[in-house]
Amino acid sequence: MRHLIIGNGPAGVIAAETLRKADAKAEIVLVGDEDVPPYSRMAIPYLLMGRIAEQGTYLRKDAGHFERLSIRMVRGRAERVDTAARSVMLGGGERLAYDRLLIATGSHPLRPPVPGMDLPGVHSCWTLDDARNIIAMAKPGSRVLQIGAGFIGCIIMEALAARGVALTIVEMGDRMVPRMMTAKAGEMIRRWVASKGVQVHVNAAVANLRQEGADLVAKLSSGADLVADLVISAAGVKPNIAFLAGSGIATADGVRVGAAMQTNVAGVYAAGDVTEAAGFHSGLPSLNAIQPNAADQARTAALNMAGGSAAAQGSLAINVLDTLGLISVSFGLWAGEPAAAGGEGVELVDEKAYRYLSLQFKGDVLIGATAIGLTDHVGALRGLIQGRARLGDWKDRLLHDPTRFMAAYLASAQKVA
């Protein structure tokens, strides 16, 4: 049996290792398109901060790891998939045959349709090569403009602030991290960031970029000009699926998969950021580009590729963020459900202390949660949501005092036991 995995990020690596555990004799080929060992993009901010060297970003620190597991590494970029012939064509013309195929090609950073985005000094922060360019330019005191304050943008912001740059953030949404935080929570994070010396413009967009001598000048939608030495685009990501055109593999925003992580084509699977998998609550296809889901999907896909029977639990939002020392989390349907659909929620806000807690229910089940400045036992929130625990009387207690979620979790665990 020959297993071919396209993409050597976390999903691809976990799948390859899971396959080897499940089948000691199968041939496993892992394809990546960069000239470095498999690495974690989520470790790049730590590289920018100077906490680790490039080797610290590598997913497996032992140079002989993949060779010992008899996982063959191939460098190349997939250009086309021929599902009838069960083969993948790489950019250099090499054709790789497969019995089972896993698509784990991840995402690429979006480039906003802004004139001037191709100017020197404008970079994404997605690859090790990007990191090298940023390290060379982001010196203490450098004027840095970052476009985007989503989850990835906030992680990059943390690293840039640690480098001592003069940092300005421009975010189109009405708050920071709008896709993982409620309005009050996102505004609380914005105030915290501003108190740390970072300028933040929300409800704003960069209309164009121009070069004036050694300076980059960004014209905002408000008409104001911002001058920078370096511009970083952190405006989101999009799944890498263009190479699947004409393959017959069903795609929409990403690769469509079922609970077994198999596509509509037998023997072809997908995992990680590239997938549109069923949502944990809705059951509907959705993108959810976070590493816990990628790991779960990779293991599920690999076990099924090896002939087993496994099902993913569904894509669940699991976000944990450290923003200049302020910890925030959101789980599940953090925005809640409409009251007409049975939704009900409670918010606890302490503006001065930068503390926030939101719990969202459907019936007596906790379906979503958001917390800022609370680090003790927040994993219990995820446990209640992921376990679909029926809270009974505890729901009313939590509506009265949401801070008692740990007691509710323990009571729920005892009930199950």
Shape: globular
Give the N-terminus to C-terminus distance in angstroms: 42 Å
Strand arrangement, largest sheet?
3-2-1-7-19
Number of domains: 3
Number of strands: 26
Low-confidence stretches: none
Please bin the fraction of helical residues.
10-25%
Radius of gyration: 23 Å
Relevant CATH superfamily of the largest domain:
FAD/NAD(P)-binding domain
- At CATH's second level, what is the architecture of the largest domain? 3-Layer(bba) Sandwich
Q: Looking at the chains present, what oligomeric state does this protein adopt?
A: single chain
Number of helices: 10
What's the CATH topology name of the largest domain?
FAD/NAD(P)-binding domain
- Would you tell me the structural class of the helices and strands? alpha/beta
User: In this structure, how is the largest beta sheet organized?
Assistant: 5 strands, parallel
Describe how the helices and strands are arranged.
Elements lengths: L1 E5 L3 H13 L4 E6 L11 H6 L15 H4 L2 E5 L2 E5 L4 E4 L4 E3 L2 E4 L3 E3 L12 E3 L3 H10 L5 E5 L3 H12 L3 E5 L12 H13 L3 E3 L4 E7 L2 E6 L4 E4 L1 E4 L3 E3 L15 E2 L11 E3 L4 E4 L6 E2 L4 H15 L12 E6 L2 E7 L10 E8 L4 E8 L2 E8 L6 H8 L7 H7 L4 H12 L1
Parallel strand pairs: 1-2, 1-7, 2-3, 7-19, 9-16, 10-11, 10-16, 11-12, 18-20
Antiparallel strand pairs: 4-5, 5-6, 8-17, 13-14, 14-15, 20-21, 22-23, 23-26, 24-25, 25-26
